[in-house]
Amino acid sequence: MLKSDFYYDLPQELIAQTPLEPRDSSRLMKIDRKSGRITHDRFYNICDYLEKGDLLVLNDSKVFPARLFGVKPDTGAAVQFLLLSQKSNDCWEVMVKPGKRLKIGARVDFSGILSAEIIDNAEGGNRIARFSYDGNSIFEVLDKIGQMPLPPYITEKLENKDRYNTIYCHEIGSAAAPTAGLHFTERVFSAMKEKGVDTAFVTLHVGLGTFRPVKEDNVLDHKMHSEHYAIPDITAQKIKECKQRGGKIIAVGTTACRTLESAATLHGEIIPCSHDTDIFIYPGYEFKAIDGLITNFHLPESTLIMLVSAFLGREETLAAYKTAIEKKYRFFSFGDSMAIL
To answer: In angstroms, rounded to a whole number, what is the distance separating the alpha carbons of residues 304 and 281?
Structure first.
């Protein structure tokens, strides 16, 4: 299986640079997984394609303003940090630019209210930094001076930080948004509740590995990044009850999908648990947990389009993407939505 098997040509102008208002006004491509029939709609009508008794599982992880711009006090040289993962209260793995200037022991100042010392090296040229600040929490400081870590294909400035988070986000820890959930509004949730469609939440903290390109020509040689997930008691119980009543388990996003499939693979069923996962889902994978998937349109040759191809079929996925391009759908993080049901 080759990386090039998942390539498609995307016109640059279809990469969404800003989010739509309101959130649920984005376009929706609904695909019948059995027949392949495609319906074009708007996301605010998503409930029309769901059935009473279905369960939507959403990722409640919250993106924090993890990008920092600072200077080295001794030289005045500009430095950029991207906080990746919290190792302890005040120690983080960070991506740094330029890395050559930041040896162990180097110090960086951020806006006079946050400082960092490099205490170790990490994999891939990253660093371990210990932060010092005034206040109760580093997240309070980041809210004041940090910027959202938008993916590299978004070049426009985000005016409202909240638009790179879902309205139901709760657990702080992601360096990138679980973007399939950005379309949901209170209007959509109200319609689902009225119809008898239930919701449940998992947490998977999205790392920047989600944007890491597949470099190997042979897909099977790609090393998947690891991310932490948690499934609470109430979600495991709701999934069990949904299956008992014959409802569909619908993952909102590839992160919710990977969480459920990781747990089902590890335990044989969905139980309350908390683990790290590096599950790589590509065509040939046998799904154990989900019956439907709501997702955005993903980058060519990415692990995300491979996951969608595993669920829908590679040829069917590429045909759907071809249709989306012809119909001028908006792509990637702030783009339109696809529902495979």
So the answer is: 8
Q: pTM of the entire structure?
A: 0.93
Q: Please give the Cα distance from 298 to 289 (Å, whole number).
A: 22
DSSP code per residue over 212-231: ----SSBGGGPPPP-EEEEE
* Domains, in order of start, for the chain: 3-63+161-340 (3.40.1780.10), 67-145 (2.40.10.240)
Q: How far is CA 285 from the centre of its chain?
A: 20
- The C-alpha atoms of residue 325 and residue 266 are separated, in whole angstroms, by 38
Residues 6+ apart with CB under 8 A from 87: 93, 128
pLDDT tens, position by position, 106-145: 999 999 999 999 999 998 889 999 999 988 899 999 999 9
Which sign does the torsion angle of CA 39, 5, 282, 315 carry?
positive
Helix axes 303-312, 254-267, angle to 10 degrees: 70
